[in-house]
Design a protein that fits this description.
single chain; 20 helices; 2% strand; mainly alpha; 2 domains; two-stranded antiparallel sheet
């Protein structure tokens, strides 16, 4: 992700990662759910509604789908809504994050997806080689399959996760989705409802397929089969809406009052945009924030209203009047803020903290054996 600054001048990718960590590390603050709600608001009100829904889907399939398959339908309905007010959209988002936040986490899908497979090897040869095609459970499926499809089913049967991912890429998600259901219906006598990947409002179909396989192999006693949907506190929703609409006077105090949380110290395990720009990330906030904020829909609308144009890491205005008008309304003066306020977005990040956190998860995982992990999520 390129460097983009948000509503209150955080790095956008770090807002997403901090949202993830707020879900997974609930003991960081006295009011942990408020942190989740804050990052959702920061992303949503900056103009990244579609990207936020995609990310919520990703969190759902990585950590909750196995235990709570009934949530999928509700998230699907709410994520498809388009013709409703901004406040209603925030209400729907809060409904879903409240639902997930107070549910039990499973790391299985996350870990199996985060294991890094060398691209060159993955494209040329599967991790585990099969030879036999005339296996009993393959015959029992009673459908026509090519060798890749047969070996895909065999890798599922043997729970060879890297090989499973290889064949999903080779075969395609739609066909794999059908094969998975057929295998579990015929071999394990499961009864599955008719469904189609196309109807799920999430772009990463491979992720859905991987989560489905994990779900099918899960202990039935660990799955919540009843559709229990917990509604959020109405006051929580109103607080988010009011927080976004409330202005601060004088203007230069905005970041001091609005930056309620700092980015998570654990996000150093990910490939952050702050290190990709050919510029010190602290200078991005202090000296060139307008240029990078323009990449955010909220700020683009504000800057365009005064005729501002981003040029060479600066903003150019047609007249002094336009220049003065913009800064009178929106100059948060990030370079003049206290160190504490600035560090809520540009603090140093210790990668070892994130690695230590991840190792605590991996050491208890059936998918971990000193494998390299992906640095993007």
């Amino acid at each position: 992700m390129n460097v983009i600054l948000t509503r209150y001048l955080y790095f956008l990718d770090e807002c997403f990662y901090s949202l993830l960590m707020a879900f997974l590390n609930k003991n960081r603050h006295e009011k942990p759910f408020e942190e989740v709600a804050f990052w959702v608001g920061e992303i949503f009100y900056s103009g990244f509604e579609k990207e936020l829904w995609e990310y919520i889907w990703k969190i759902y399939y990585d950590f909750y789908a196995i235990k709570y398959p009934k949530y999928e339908k509700k998230i699907n309905i709410l994520s498809k809504k388009v013709n409703c007010s901004e406040n209603k959209k925030m209400e729907d988002l809060m409904y879903v994050i409240n639902l997930l936040y107070y549910s039990t986490i499973s790391y299985d899908v996350f870990i199996s997806r985060m294991v890094d497979i060398d691209d060159a090897i993955a494209l040329s040869i599967p991790k585990y080689i099969y030879k036999k095609t005339n296996v009993g459970y393959i015959k029992n499926m009673n459908i026509s399959m090519n060798k890749n499809e047969i070996f895909f089913i065999r890798s599922i049967h043997d729970k060879k996760w890297q090989t499973i991912i290889y064949y999903i890429t080779k075969i395609g998600e739609e066909r794999c989705y059908c094969l998975i259901k057929k295998y579990f219906e015929k071999t394990h006598k499961y009864t599955l409802k008719e469904s189609n990947l196309i109807n799920i409002n999430y772009k990463d179909k491979k992720h859905i397929v991987i989560a489905l396989i994990h779900y099918m192999w899960s202990d039935e006693n660990n799955i919540q089969k009843k559709r229990i949907l917990k509604r959020p506190n109405i006051k929580m929703i109103k607080n988010q809406i009011d927080f976004n609409e409330d202005s601060v006077s004088p203007l230069y105090n905005t970041l001091n009052h609005k930056r309620l949380f700092g980015i998570s110290p654990l996000i150093g395990i990910f490939d952050l945009s702050r290190y990709k720009e050919n510029m010190d990330y602290k200078d991005i906030l202090r000296l060139h924030w307008e240029y990078f904020a323009y990449k955010s829909p909220l700020w683009r609308e504000r800057i365009d209203a005064f005729g501002g144009k981003p040029v060479s890491h600066e903003l150019n205005f047609k007249s002094d009047e336009d220049f003065d008008g913009f800064y009178e309304q929106y100059n948060y003066e990030p370079d003049e803020q206290t160190k504490d306020v600035q560090n809520r977005s540009i603090c140093e990040i210790d990668k070892e903290l994130g690695i230590s956190w991840l190792n605590n998860i991996l050491n208890n995982s059936k998918y971990w054996s000193n494998k390299k992990l992906k640095t993007n999520y």
